[in-house]
Amino acid sequence: MEPWIVHDPAVLAGKACVRGTRISVEFLLELVASGASQSQILAAYPQLSSESLAAAFHYAAASLRDEFVWDSSHGS
């Protein structure tokens, strides 16, 4: 099976999107951050499935997993 999350330079400048859509992972995160539930998102975007939505959230988590934020206010 092909991955749910794809990057295509011709679609949204290569942002991570759900395969077969122009729905970006970033947009889905913004929906959740604004209070949308999974059922609301799936109802509003019938081209998504619960599996593709879960894949988007897993992709976002994996992308941030190794992120390190250095706080320069604590000096060296």
Structure description:
There is one protein chain. Helix 1 (25-33) crosses helix 3. The mean pLDDT is 91. By secondary structure, the chain is mainly alpha-helical. Strand 1 and strand 2 (16-18) form a beta hairpin. The longest helix is centred in the C-terminal third of the chain and has 16 residues, at 50-65. It has three helices and two strands. The chain has one domain: Orthogonal Bundle (Arc Repressor Mutant, subunit A).
Structure characteristics:
two-stranded antiparallel ribbon, about 10% strand, about 80 residues, mainly alpha, 3 helices
Measured by DSSP, the beta-strand proportion falls in 5-15%
Measure the end-to-end span.
48 Å
- Number of alpha- plus pi-helical segments: 3
Identify the strand order in the major beta sheet: 1-2
Average pLDDT = 91
The CATH topology turns out to be Arc Repressor Mutant, subunit A
Sheet with the most strands? 2 strands, antiparallel
What is the count of structural domains? Answer: 1
Pattern of helices and strands:
EEHHH
Topology, number of strands: 2
Q: Structural class of the helix and strand makeup? A: mainly alpha
CATH superfamily: Winged helix-like DNA-binding domain superfamily/Winged helix DNA-binding domain
